[in-house]
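Wed. Picked up where I left off yesterday with FAD-binding oxidoreductase. The coffee machine is broken again, so keeping this brief.
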Amino acid sequence: MQAMMPATCILRQRCAERDLAWHHPTVHDFHPMPLLNPHPPSIPGRAKVIVVGGGVMGASAAWHLAKAGAAVTLVESNPDSRSTATASSLGWVGASASSPSDNPAAFALRLKALEAFAALEGQLGPLPIATRGTLLWLSNEEETAAMIAEHQSSGTRMERLLRAQISDKEPMLAQAPPLAAWAPDDFALEPAAFARQLLAGAQDLGASMLQGTVDAVEVTGSRVSGISVGGQRLTADTVVLANGLGAQALASTAGVHLPIYPSPAVLLRFGLETHGLRHLLCAEDLELRPSLGGGLVSAADYPDNAESGFPALAARSAEAIAHLLGLTAAPALVSIAAAQRPMTTDGTPLCAYVGEIDGLFALVAHPGVILAPFLGQLCATSVLDA
Ligand SMILES: Cc1cc2nc3c(=O)[nH]c(=O)nc-3n(C[C@H](O)[C@H](O)[C@H](O)COP(=O)(O)OP(=O)(O)OC[C@H]3O[C@@H](n4cnc5c(N)ncnc54)[C@H](O)[C@@H]3O)c2cc1C
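Structure written out below (tokens, as returned):
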């Protein structure tokens, strides 16, 4: 029997600054547009690549491209925004975030992406990891057992834990289920800090960071010749559109249609300093993890009644946390915000040259945090091989 998905399992769907105690030693600077020479001299033998978007996808592309020797300029409209998909992400990275039978190709891709994560950590240094290991359970024992069996037969590490073992692993749980899956290789990181780490690393490798909103892709003849940003032209051999949902509008300025659409999801932050939660929990109706800077982070489906449903969603989530952790009072809500996840219409990542013109590359995928290291690497290889 195929395991059912928990109702709010954000990743299993089709698929702050203040909270972050973790700091990268290098602070990246985005230069405002006037500081940059819009026509930097070409460096013989080095591909000139513009990456649009400094979310996790653009940051990974910039790092991999710079590492592979490209002359990279990354343009980001709002480096401090907290409303991007990356800043609002739960940051769950692991094979257990999807079932092999849901979509075998997507599952295989995630396994590859996890290898790329491990390789990246080796090169970039310690990642801003909030917690390692996920505990999951579905609405009944039979479904949880089926999920574990499916993962085990597909070769991913997933263990069966009975109630006493669950309590050992997560002593704060007041309501441990009779059976849970333990995914020891899963982890959750702080996505915004991870993107900043990649951007800082790209800068160390010579990439330039530019603050500005890209208005259009410039085309000369049948090739991309650069971008227009804040009324100025910036030239390049290749333009990588890694600006999430904004990629569609930019591609259309070059006459190219990208098959992407928005899918909203909600991130909730709770200010509970002494929660004692150790791992990421994907419980029947709750996705919850500790935040690196203290407190708890939870992801949820976007309410049917849009933002007017936020107060009820926040109250439900706080109650569910209190129930799960046996708290006497519901934790205080610090923030609740929705962000649009960039999705591709057929669910497969867009990591390729697009359209009839040369030099226009699109990099849009879900789940973006998991896939960013692998796709960033693939983007760099594709661009530099071309
Ligand atoms: C609540 C929630 C939970 C999630 N949980 C997970 C999870 O656990 N694991 C996982 O893998 N994924 C998760 N996701 C999905 C993941 O966050 C996204 O897939 C990923 O962050 C997308 O990254 P991105 O870089 O493509 O887009 P974005 O983060 O949106 O970045 C795009 C950037 O481009 C910039 N930009 C846009 N237009 C322009 C322009 N014209 N000029 C210059 N800059 C521009 C924007 O300012 C933005 O910074 C979650 C998403 C949400 C909302």
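Quick read: The chain has eight helices and 19 strands.
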